[in-house]
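Please check this.
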Amino acid sequence: MIYLNKPAQTCWPQKTTQPKLSVSTSCAYYKALLYTKVMDLPNQPISPTPTPIVPPIPSSLPPTTPPSPQIIKKSKFPLIILPIILVVILVLIAGFFVGKKIISSMNASKSVTLTYWGLWESKEIIQPIIDAYEGSHPNVKVNYIFQSQREYRERLQNALSQGLGPDIFRIHSSWTPMFKQDLSAVPATVYSASEYESTFYPTTKTDLRVGNNYVAVPLEIDGLALFVNDDILTQAGKSVPVTWDELRQSAYDLCVGNTTDGKCRPGDKILVAGVAMGTSDNVEHWQDILAILMLQNNVNLNSPSGKNAEDALDYYTQFSRVDHVWDSTLPSSTENFASGKLAFYFGPSWRVFDVLNLNPKLKFSVHPVPQAPLDLVRGEKPINWASYWAEGVNAKSVHKDAAWEFVKYLSSPENLQKFYSTASLTRAFGEPYGRTDLAANIKDAPYVGAYISQAPTARSWYLASNTFDGPTGINTLLSKYFSDAVNKVNQGSSASEAIKTLSLGITQVLSRYGLAAVAPQSK
């Protein structure tokens, strides 16, 4: 049985999703709805009942037939906005990564501190250039550390091998084989190969090159020159010798011995020496002198042999062994020259400072090294000696690019001139310019001009003096073999026997550094 007159308070379902109506309104609505459904039931007998009186439906009552669900039409999204939004998103993403990279780069640049190990020049001399660089590069700091020459090569190489080495450091031109694993190649953005070769002197093409790369930049050039006691030459009416034969004759004529006629003879004391040559114990820079003699005599220093090598060695020893214009009883050659008791002396440019410090009143001048006779028809050119220092960059440095940029700055003509001028305030001159385009500035300068005039034809090898490369350094090891050769000849052995032993020693040392014998260069 269907109850149409159920109490009003229970007519409304307890759980519904329909909107809530008042109790009276909802009961009337459902009574009408149930009545309609009963009338639709099939095969049901209908009892005659009076037509029910349906109360009027209030205006707020839902329609007796539920309305069809409304379909809300989606508004069409403007398609033209999509590409704009995508572009904006891409720009934002790209901006994020680019900004992150820029910020990272800025942070990195702020922390760049370059450690620079220097030799010879005090911090006071180089600091003005560093200050100017830091002023134009506010994110870079250069920490210059002046190093003592004592055990410098070993100290530097040990630091580099342990990953504790400086970013920039100074090496001797003959040290390249010992440091080839530690040296960063000069970037093309700093100096291209052609620019490098046109800027610096020809000797750098072999001295500072590893494979196809240059590995150091020379701020200076130096070598060997002839120091002359002007008073001794003037009093004797002599001119400066330009050949070795002239030097030998002048040295003999100018030597003063403790004899009745004043001549220098074996066994007699030398009062004024002619030239510091012939021995290896008290002749400073004897290595450079002997090397240049052999090079001018077309000797292959990598493997000396034959008459040319024997003649060069024999000639060097004749000044003490035969002419007796120098002997091993005399003080060091530098000291003897500064005292005014030596007519001719060989040394690098920096020895000028030593002589002036020892004797500021000494009148002396500096001239190019004598030459062997040249065959001008064959186009032979003078051969001079190169021994200099250059700036390299640590191959393991995390700031290689910044380091090379600073080295480029240092080697610019403007800064080299500032460097030279600042140094000249405290001594006779600064480091002789390593750039060829600055040669004209000092080619006629007292003391230093001779080194500049010789630089275009200067050569070097691993027999350089005063490089301080230590007991295991290439120059020290080779010097020992050459010194033995000089001593053997002075003690009576033949130059031929001495050269044979020397050649074996040279091969042993060079093989240690992977250096093969090469043919000698023509004059």
Q: What stands out?
A: The first strand starts at residue 112 and ends at 118.
